[in-house]
Design a protein that fits this description.
165 residues, three-stranded mixed β-sheet
């Protein structure tokens, strides 16, 4: 009896230690402000911080509205993160913010609170309602195949700073 109890105890210890090692080996990617949109990009935490940084740095603020469980957001995020031109422009020429909730600024949802939605705010803190995607019913949404349009819109936001401000 003592022998079988000892054997059972050793078996339980071996199983639990193997389970603990398996759990420990499972790598958990730390959650950063990028939320998968580009780890090399410097991201601001809040809309208010983004506005402050845009004005201070004389760079446009790019606001990405998305949800973690949205398949369209995930597809756009993947295309955005994999595009070198977008990543370079975002890192060097924009103040970047991605939000998984709505802001109190209704100017950021002129045609509804849908996701994904990308909007630009210039350093004078004007929401650029004139920089839109290709859809007439959801002006500020982009899909993975719209990456060239998004790149052109990023360039347009940069040009407008030089010509209008």
């Amino acid at each position: 009896m003592l022998h079988s109890t000892l054997a059972l105890s050793l078996l339980l210890i071996a199983v639990s230690s193997n389970l603990a090692m398996a759990i420990k080996k499972e790598k958990r990617v730390p959650q950063t402000l990028s939320r998968g949109w580009g780890d090399e990009i410097t991201w601001v935490q809040t809309y208010e911080e983004g506005l402050y940084q845009a004005k201070k740095s004389n760079k446009p603020l790019m606001v990405i509205h998305h949800l973690e469980d949205c398949q369209y957001c995930q597809a756009l995020k993947k295309a955005f993160a994999e595009n070198e031109e977008i990543q370079e422009m975002a890192q060097n020429n924009f103040v970047m913010l991605n939000l998984m909730h709505e802001t109190t600024d209704k100017n950021l949802s002129p045609d509804g609170q849908y996701v994904p939605r990308i909007m630009f705010i210039d350093p004078s803190l004007t929401v650029r309602a004139d920089i839109t995607g290709r859809y007439s019913n959801r002006l500020y949404t982009y899909e993975p195949q719209d990456i060239p349009i998004l790149i052109e819109n990023m360039k347009k936001a940069l040009r407008l700073i030089q010509t209008e401000l």
